[in-house]
Amino acid sequence: MSDRRPRAAWRRHPEPPLEPESAPRATDRPSVVQATLYRDGRRVSSPATLADTFRQLREHPDGMAWIGLQRPTEAELHSLAAEFDLHELAVEDALEAHQRPKLERYGDTLFVVLRAARYLDAQEEVEFGELHIFVGPDFLITVRHGAAPDLSTVRRRMEEDPDLLALGPEAVLYAILDAVVDGYAPVVAGVQNDIDEIETEVFGGDPAVSRRIYELSREMVEFQRATRPLVGMLHGLMAGFAKYGTDEELQRYLRDVADHVTHTSERVDGFRQALTDILTVNATLVTQQQNAEMRALAEAGFEQNEEIKKISAWAAILFAPTLVGTIYGMNFDSMPELHWTGGYPFAIGLMGLVCTGLYVIFKRRDWL
Question: pLDDT-derived band of residue 142, with 50, 70 and 90 as boundaries?
Answer without folding.
Answer: very high
